[in-house]
Write a structure and sequence with these properties.
The chain is built from two helices and twelve strands; from the N terminus they run βββββαβαββββββ. 8% of the residues lie in helices and 42% in strands. It is elongated and about 80 Å long. A six-stranded antiparallel barrel has the order 1-2-5-4-3-6. A six-stranded mixed beta sheet has the order 10-9-8-7-12-11, with no helix packed on it. InterPro entries: PRC_barrel-like_sf, PRC_RimM, RimM, RimM_N, RimM_N_sf, Transl_B-barrel_sf. One of its GO terms (molecular function) is ribosome binding.
């Protein structure tokens, strides 16, 4: 038997539980699974429904098992380990570039500001190019394509949903007549 995760607690009144999955990613939940009983043998259980609980990658899921129909029944499962009879497949971990691109894509909708030059707008898209990612920025009177490089992007604050930029004036025609 292979451990899949453990039951953290009951959730709601319809028999759902919170499953903490060992790998953090949603487990493949088809077929029979097992709990180890107090006698030491394995009792089978089927999963009826599973959905994420919280942030992606948190490893926590709301699970509804067949035959568990109320909170009292769900509470009896608290602390038990869920097992599978088949070895879980190795989950490919994203490489650094994939993680970086996911982080950049999460910037869509963030405000971007070049305070030194008085330029402010919103990131409406993140484009992937062979050289480097590019922010598509909507300004009040223009659309800018700005490479995500240190020369233009200073900091990204995900908590405040704010991007600090510099040198964005370089993208405007500054010819003197």
């Amino acid at each position: 038997m292979y451990p899949i995760g453990f039951i953290k607690k009951a959730h709601g009144i319809k028999g759902e539980i919170v499953l903490v999955h060992e790998e953090g990613a949603p487990p493949e939940m088809h077929g029979l699974f097992f709990f180890k009983s107090s006698r030491g043998d394995y009792e089978p259980v089927r999963i009826e429904a599973i959905r994420p609980n919280g942030r992606p990658g948190s490893g926590m899921f709301f699970v509804l098992f067949s035959g568990i129909t109320n909170r009292s029944e769900a509470e009896t499962l608290q602390g038990l380990v869920l097992y599978s009879s088949t070895e879980p497949e190795a989950i490919a971990q994203p490489d650094e570039e994939e993680v970086y691109m996911q982080e950049l894509h999460s910037c869509e909708g963030y405000q971007i500001e070049d305070a030194a030059n008085g330029i402010s707008g919103y990131i409406i898209d993140v484009m992937e190019t062979p050289a480097h990612p590019v922010f598509e920025i909507q300004l009040p009177s223009a659309l800018l394509l700005v490479p995500v490089v240190d020369a233009y992007i200073s900091t990204i604050d995900h908590e405040e949903q704010q991007v600090s930029a510099q040198n964005l004036d370089a993208f405007f025609d500054t010819e003197e007549s």
